[in-house]
Amino acid sequence: METFKGSVTSAKGFYAASTAAGIKYKDRSDMAMIYSKEPCVCAGTFTTNIVKAAPVKWDMRIVEESPFVQAVVVNAGIANACTGEEGLAHCWETAQTVSKIMGIPEEAVLVASTGVIGMQVPIDKICAGVGQMVPKLSDGKEAGTKAARAIMTTDTVPKHIAVSFKIDGRTVTIGGMCKGSGMIHPNMCTMLSFLTTDAAISKELLTEALKESVQETYNMVSVDGDTSTNDTVLLMANGMAGNPVIDKKDESYEKFIQALDTVNTYLCKRIAGDGEGATALLEVKIIGAATKSDAVKLAKSVVTSNLVKTAIYGHDANWGRILCAMGYAGVDFDPEQVDLYFESANGKIKIIEDGVSTGYSEEEATQILTSDAVTAIADVKMGKASATAWGCDLTHDYVKINADYRS
Amino acid sequence: METFKGSVTSAKGFYAASTAAGIKYKDRSDMAMIYSKEPCVCAGTFTTNIVKAAPVKWDMRIVEESPFVQAVVVNAGIANACTGEEGLAHCWETAQTVSKIMGIPEEAVLVASTGVIGMQVPIDKICAGVGQMVPKLSDGKEAGTKAARAIMTTDTVPKHIAVSFKIDGRTVTIGGMCKGSGMIHPNMCTMLSFLTTDAAISKELLTEALKESVQETYNMVSVDGDTSTNDTVLLMANGMAGNPVIDKKDESYEKFIQALDTVNTYLCKRIAGDGEGATALLEVKIIGAATKSDAVKLAKSVVTSNLVKTAIYGHDANWGRILCAMGYAGVDFDPEQVDLYFESANGKIKIIEDGVSTGYSEEEATQILTSDAVTAIADVKMGKASATAWGCDLTHDYVKINADYRS
Which of B8, B79, B295, B323 is 20 to 30 A away from residue A126, measured at CA? Predict the structure, then answer.
C-alpha cells in the first residue's frame, strides 16, 4: 500500500474544479465540484443531530434511493441549515443546474454546504459557480488540491491524501479531501469529507466498509464537543480500476478497508490537529479496557475535556484532569489501578502508576508536551480492549475565532 | 421570606473562622471552619465522578453513619484527590485534631478540600490552621463573610446569602456559602457549598429536601463540562430556631424547601456568573418540553456548548448554534417548531419563530446580549415541562486561567 499527497482526483476517472463564487468570502475560492466520468455507487454517513441541514437531507435521500451518482457540488461560507423548504429547494436547483449542463440525472448530483447556520445561500451565485466550474473540470493533481482548499472555512490548511494498492494485479486508488475545523464532535460521521475510489465494489459492501471505518476514525474526533448540523462523509466508487467486483468479505475487501482506514485516519488527525485555534494534536489512547465501548467512552471523555485541552495548550502535565475526565465518562474502572503516560516526538514518560504520581520530572514532562502532536496513554487494567480518539488543545485563538465568527 | 447578605453564621448557634495556613496561596486566608454550638443533623450530596477525592469519601461515610455532626474544616489550594490511603489518613488526622481541641467526636467532623488534584495536603499546616481558627470562632456576620472568602480558588468574588422565614411564629434561618468556579458541570451536586440552618428538622426530611433542591439548582449549573472529583454540598441543621420539628411533608416543609431553593438558586447563579474568566451569566430556559427530563437535557446541552458560550462572549446572536446544541441533546423535538428569544436587563427580542429567523434587528440583539446576565428562552412546543440551566460565556481568560493553573 502506497500513501501519497493525492486528493479526490487521484482515483481513475475522477475530475475536480473550484471557483470563487463570492458566496461569503472575498478573494478566495469557495465552491468545489467533483465529477466522475463513469457512474458511481455511493455510500454516505451523516450527522446524528436532529437539526439537519438541507444538503444533508438531500444527500440522505440520494444515497438511499439513487442507484448511482456522478457529481458533488460543495460550497463554503453558508451552511444552508435551519433554512426550511426554501433551503431544500436550493439543493434541488443546484442539482438541476448540474443536470442540465452535464446531461446527467439530477438524482445523480450530491450537494454539501458548510458555514453559518440560518442564512439562505445566494442560489444565483451557486448556479453561476457551477457554470464556471464545469469547463474547468480536470483529473489533474492540482485540481484536487485546489478543491480541498475551496471547501475550507476556519481551516488553516487544506486536507487531502490518497492511497494506492493492488487487487488481483490491478492498481486501486482511494483519494479524499475534507474540511474541519469547529463544531466537531464524536457521535456522528463528522464534518465534510469526500472520498473517491476507482475500486469496483458493490454498493452494499461500500456502505458497510464506510460505516466500519467511520466508527474508528471520524467518530473518534472532537474539536469542541459540538455536533454539527451538516456533517457528511461521502464515498464514491466508479469501478474504473478494473478489479473483479468486491462483493463479499474476502481478502480484497480487507485490503480495501485497510486502505480506507488509512485515508480516514490521516484526514481525522489533520482535522483534529487543525481544530479552531489549535496549536497541537491531542491523541488519547485507552488500553486495557474491559470492552471496546468502555475504551471509546473513556477516550472521548478525555479528548473532549476543556480542562485537559487547556492543560495541553499550557504544556502542563496536569494528569489529575485526565483521571478526572475518565472518572465522569460513565465507565466502571478502578482509579487506583490506572497507569498514565505522555508521549510525543520528544520522548515518553510515565506520569502515574496505580493511580498515584510516579514522582516524574515536571521539566521532562513539559518538554514532551511541548510538541505539535501529543499522545496520552492510559492503561486501566480491566481487560484487553483499546480505543484512540483525536482532539486538540483549547487556546486563546479558539475563543477569538468563535466569539465573533459571523462578522 | 426575607433574603439578606448573610452567610453560614446567620442561623442561630453557628460559628465560623478562617485563617491563612499557607497551604498554597500566599498572603491570603485559605482555610475556613464552621462550628455549631449544638449537634446538627446533616445531609450531603457528592460528586458522581468515580474518581472521588479523599474528603468526599470521608464525608460520605460521616453523613451516612454519624447521627450528628458539629464542625466542618475546609481548605483551598489542594484538592486531596488521587492521593490514595495517605490522603484519607489526612482527613482523619484533621478530624482528630478538631476532636481533641473542641471535645467533640471525630465522627462529628466533616472536611472539604478544593484545588490541585494529585498532591498531598501539608497536614501539619492543616492541623496548625485548625489550632489558629478555634479561638477565632465567631457567630458574627464578618466571620461568615471571611469564611466565604477563604474557600475561594479562582473565584473572583465570595458567594454567600441567607434567608429567614417563619414557622409557627418562630424565625428560621438558612444561610450558605459556596465556591466555584472551574471543573463545574451538571450531573452531580457540584463544587463546594456549605449550608447551615437553625431549623428543627428530621435527618430524613433534611436529606430529601437537599436532594430535591439540588436537582433544580446545583445540577443545572455548568461552567466547563468537567465534573469535579471534589463536589460537595453539605446542609447542617441544629434545631436552635425552636420550631416544632419538621418530620413530615407539611406546610412547614414546603416553606423550608422554598427557602432552601432560594439560597441554592442564588448561590448557583453566582457560581455560573463567576465561572472562570466569565464576563456574563448565561441562563437557558427551555419551555414547552414534552417531559421534565427532555427540558433538562435541552437546557444543559445549550448551556454547555462551547460555540454558544463563545457567541455570548462576542455578544453575537448566533442562534444557529443554540438550535444546533438542542439538536444533539438526544431529545425528540421538531426544529421547525422552535421559537427562540434573548432577554436581559436591556430588553427582550424574538430571534426565531417556527425554526426560522424572524428577521430581527442584529443591532438590537447585540444590545440585549451586551449585559452581564443574558437569558435565552426556547419554546419547543411539545408539552408543558420546563427547566432552567445556568452557565457563563467562554472567554480568553478561561483559557489563560486553565492553560497554566498549576504554576
Answer: B323
B282-305 pLDDT, tens digit per residue, is 999 999 999 999 999 999 999 988
* DSSP conformational letter for B108: G
Cross-chain CB nearest to B404 (options A314, A336, A352): A314
* Nearest residue in chain A measured CA to CA from B187: A328
Alpha helices in A178-291 (DSSP H): 203-216, 251-273
Non-local (6+) Cβ contacts of A242 within 8 A are A170, A200
- Residue B215: its pLDDT value, please? 86
A3 touches chain B (CB under 8 A): no
Rounded Cα–Cα distance for residues A228 and A46 (Å): 10
pLDDT value for A404:
62
The distance of A262 to chain B (nearest Cα, Å) reads: 29
What pLDDT is stored for residue A182 in this prediction?
58
Tell me the CB-side half-sphere exposure of residue A375, using CA atoms within 13 A: 17
Closest CA to A232 of A163, A157, A151: A151
> Residue A40 pLDDT > 80, yes or no?
yes
CA–CA gap between residue A263 and residue A172 (Å, rounded)? 13
CB A180 within 8 A of CB A269: no
- Would you say the C-alpha torsion A350, A368, A326, A272 has a positive or negative sign? negative
Is the CB of B49 inside 8 Å of chain A's CB atoms?
A: yes
- Nearest CA-CA partner of A48 in A193, A185, A206, A212: A185
Dist. CA A182–CA A272, nearest whole Å: 10
Give pLDDT tens digits for B3-17: 999 999 999 999 999
> CA B24, CA B30: separation in Å to the nearest integer?
8
Alpha-carbon distance B125 to B108, whole Å? 21
Strand-strand pairing, B373-379 and B281-289 = parallel
Instruction: Please report which confidence band the pLDDT of residue A151 belongs to, taking 50, 70 and 90 as the band edges.
Output: very high
- Cα–Cα distance between A323 and B76 in angstroms, integer? 20
How many angstroms separate the CA atoms of B28 and B68, rounded? 32
Cα–Cα distance list, B135 to A109, B14, B24, B35, B98 (Å): 80, 15, 23, 12, 12
pLDDT of B89 > 70? The answer is: yes
Cell of B298: 435541552
pLDDT at B236 over 60: yes
Mean pLDDT, chain A, as a whole number? 90
For residue A285, what pLDDT is reported? Answer: 96
Whether this model's pTM surpasses 0.90: no
pLDDT digits (tens, 9 = 90+) for A289-346: 999 999 999 999 999 888 888 889 888 888 888 998 898 888 999 998 999 999 999 9
pLDDT at position A324: 87
Q: What pLDDT score does A88 carry? A: 96
Catalytic residues of A: 190
Across the interface, whether the CB atoms of B116 and A398 are under 8 A apart is answered no
Higher pLDDT, B274 or A295: A295
Residue-wise DSSP of A301-349: HHHH-HHHHHHHHTT---HHHHHHHHHTSS----GGG-EEEEEETTEEE
First CA to last CA distance, chain B = 45
Q: Are A192 and A178 in contact (CB under 8 A)?
A: yes
Strands B109-116 and B159-167: unpaired
- Interface-testing mutation among B306, B309, B354, B358, with chain A (most A C-beta atoms within 10 A): B306
B73's enclosing H/E stretch is strand B69-78
For residue B118, the distance in angstroms to the closest alpha carbon of chain A comes to 6
User: B81: nearest CA in chain A?
Assistant: A320
pLDDT score of A189: 30
3-class state of residue B31 by DSSP: strand
Strand partners, A15: A35
